[in-house]
Amino acid sequence: MARALSVNDILTKKMRLLTLSQEWADAFGSPERTGVWFVWGASGNGKTSFVMQLCKELARHGKVAYNSLEEGAGATMQNALMRHGMRDVSRRFMVLDAEPMEEMEERMNRRQSPDFYVIDSFQYTGMSYDAYRRFKAANPGKLLIFISQAKGKMPEGAAAVRVMYDASLKIYVEGFRAISKGRFMGPKGFLTVWKEGAERYWGAAGVEKHNKNNIKTGNNEQEKRNCRDYTPSEEKEGGDCDPAKNMPVL
Could you tell me which residues are beta bridge partners of residue 169? Predict the structure, then answer.
């Protein structure tokens, strides 16, 4: 049995944090550089663009591997790389062409392997939640970023939902905004992926609050909902924080 930690043990522990650039820190604070992040959102809302921007930001801090399980290394990936100027970080960024998870894990165990792994998408890994837990435990020194398909405003599938709850940084992409949904959050709480698209979706003069009592909806109405008592069962029961109506803070 491991010994219990005192308050002083935790307060004096040196954490390995990411010092993000200002725009990113305003959205996501200073998250740990290892662990699990989870990104989800519906198609056509800027998720791919956000992930490319995220990879570019992370490349300032270490090597990034993007495992394109869903799209592979075809024309859509080529267009995304060109659109976001990924050649600028080509020395610290690599694309894995639908590399099976077993092979990717072998790569992770090599010396000088990348620090950050983006896995797109979680659904294409075929992982159960137990398999995910084993994978996470086997790679404690890496940052694992799972990209997920969505069903409504929640991740697609029961395993994906459980991974989302387990992740230290949860990022929901809607209307060309990437919104922090818990644990790590900067003073602004969201990052604009594409300004013109976001203004069309949210309204140029729309309210820009994304906190637990003020959740922005896509029709520019500000609904005030108390989500402090939200539990996963409310997804099924349609409570005050029914994700089909509004996205709870997680």
Answer: 37
